[in-house]
Amino acid sequence: MNTATAAKLLGISQSTLKRWIKELDLDMNRNELGHYDICDEDITMLKQIKKQIQNGTFLHNVTISRNKNRKGKTAILPKETTTVDTFLQRIDELEKKVNEKADNVVSYQLLTHRKEIEDLESEIKRLHLKVEFLERKLAESSSKENSEIQVNSFKINRKRSLLSMLFHF
Q1: How far apart are CA 76 and CA 27, in angstroms?
Q2: Model confidence pLDDT, tens digit, residues 57-106
Q3: What values do phi and psi take at 163, rounded to 5?
């Protein structure tokens, strides 16, 4: 039975029961969670302790008759090992989950970056086509301007030659 049930059966509080176990250094079995697991033989011993205290004996002067070899503290080791193994398994599971989550995040980021790169590449292609178009347009307009300049320069040169002939410059 657990501590609460044993304390109720003895007519004492749980804290009193725990204090007796601790101060009298009683070898009590514990379950996998570390709670006291009190059996009928332990109840008999605790009733004797309660009777001595009710008769006026101080707690540190209480005598305990032990009829059997108790495992108490030695039984804790395998259970603690089991508890430790359980915790280690849980930690391993959590580490796996964290690693999976990190992998998922990295994959998502890579996909996002890849999409951004593809978008930038398409934008570069679009800009390249626009630049080519503008260069062609510039070349066409500059060739028209050059021909106009040549025509204008021819007219100016013709006027100068006429004037120079007349005035002998």
Answers
A1: 10
A2: 787 777 777 654 444 444 444 555 678 888 899 999 999 999 899 888 98
A3: -65, -40
C-alpha 26/C-alpha 42 separation (Å) is 9
Q: Which residues partner with 36 through β-bridges?
A: 30
In angstroms, the Cα distances linking 152 to 37, 54, 145, 148, 169 are: 115, 132, 10, 6, 21
Radius of gyration of the chain (CA): 50
Find the farthest-apart pair of alpha carbons in the chain and give their distance in angstroms, rounded: 154
What's the length of the chain?
A: 169
Secondary structure class of 27 (helix, strand, coil): coil
Does residue 20 contact residue 26 with C-beta atoms inside 8 Å? yes
Q: Looking at the DSSP assignment, which residues form a beta bridge with residue 29? A: 37
Helices within the chain (DSSP H only): 3-10, 14-23, 40-54, 72-167
Phi, psi of 11, rounded to the nearest 5 degrees: 80, 30
CB distance 47 to 7 below 8 Å: no
